[in-house]
Structures are given as C-alpha cells and as structure tokens.
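Many introductory courses stop at the sequence. We go one step further.
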Amino acid sequence: MSHTAHIPSHRKPRQRASKSALRAGVAGGFLSTIAVAGAAGPAQAEPVTQTIEMPTITDGLATAVAASAQATQQVALDLETQASEDAAAEKAAKTAKKAHAEAVRKDEARKKAEAAAKAKAEAEAEERAERASRTAERTTLSASSGSSDSGSSASAPSSSSANVSGSAASIVAFAKAQVGDAYVSGGTGPNAWDCSGLVQAAYRTAGIDLPRVSQSQSTAGTQVSLDSLQPGDILYWGGAGSAYHVAIYVGGGEFVGAQNSSTGTVQRSLDYDRPTGAVRVL
C-alpha cells in the first residue's frame, strides 16, 4: 500500500465544463438584452402607413388554364368535325355504291325484258304466219275427214299396209293443221287443245278412238324404239302408263304437239324435247 493513500487532498473539486458554459451563456444573453433595450429606449417606432401590393400569381395561372381549356375545346371540336365528315363520306360512298348496283340491275332487267319482248313478238309473228298458211289446208282436211268418217263407219280400219299408210297420212295432216292453235288444259278443239286432246282428235280422223288421257295413250299400242319411228306414232314423255305428255310423230325427225300455254301447238324437232318412248297404234 502506498504511504499516501490516506492523506486527504486540499484541492477544490473541478466544476463540470457543461455547467460553466451554461452559466456563461445565460449571463451573456442577459447583458445583451439590457444593451439592446437601452439603445432603443428613447426612440419611438413610426407606424407603417404604406400598403405594398404583392403581385397575384393566380392571374397568370388562370389565363393559362383558360387558354388550355379553349385549346382542348377546339381540339374536341376539330375531332368531332372530322368524325362527322368521315361519316358523311362513308355514307355517300355506300349510297353511290348502292345506286350503281341498282342501276346495273335495272339495266340488266331492261335488257332481259327487251330480249323477251323481241322473242315473243317473233314467236307470235311466226305463229300467225303458220296459222294463216294452214287455214286452207284445214278447210280441205275437214271436208276429207267427213268423207273418211262416213267410209270408216261402214267397216273397221284394215290392218293392211295400204290402209296404215292412208290413216297415218290423215293423222299427220290433221296434227300439222292445228299448229298455231292455243294450248288450254282440257281442250279438245277445234281451236284450243291440250296434248292428249290433240292426239285423240288426230286419230279420230282415221276412225280410231283413243283413251282421253296421256297415261292411257302411252300404252294404247305396241311400244317401238325411237330409232324406228313412223309417221303417226304416238310419242310420250314419262313412263309408259304414267306419261305426263304426248305428241304425234310427223316424220322427218319432227313432232306436232300441244306443248303449253306459252307456245301453244307447235311443230318441233325431236331434239327440242327428246321423248321417253313411243307407241304404234296403226
């Protein structure tokens, strides 16, 4: 142990540095306050009588906002105007396209109507000429048919080849004489026929009574090939026994038939409307 360990010290303890600084600051501040007050004591402050107007910064902002709103509105108006113009242009294009299509359709319809009218006029002229050219033949045939009927009433038609030729000639002549007559469903003459009515009347000139309808006429004789037809043979369309149309073969690859209400009774080539089959009655 040190020999000085129990000797008391006579030094004063040191004050803390923080307390010393605090005391010095308080004292300095107090003295400064007194000095300022003393210096300002005798004089009195003059009242402020002038008002300084500070610039209003919102004025410029409001102007900018108003300009921006006006510009936005103008852009909106421009877009709306452009949209209206585009819609009007599109509508005008559609209208023009539709009008063009309609004009083309009307022009085609007009051309078809003119062609149909021309064809009809030509057909009517041809029929009138045929009708006029056969008036004399019809008159002569009617007289010869009367004498033929009276002769046939005395005896039945013969199966000899000579009589077959004569009957076929009578049938063909009668059929040709009716060319140009009208077609009427159920017609049996003298100026309007349907298909089976004409065939029945033609065969009656030869003293042969046929059934009234085409179905029965298509089985009234012997079935023959279209390659071996003879004048006077009955042509039919459809099945034998179920035919829907009949006509008379007149030779030269042609037939006479009451076709329909549009054409009436006509003489046409077999190629005009190829028949299904044929039957020979004579």
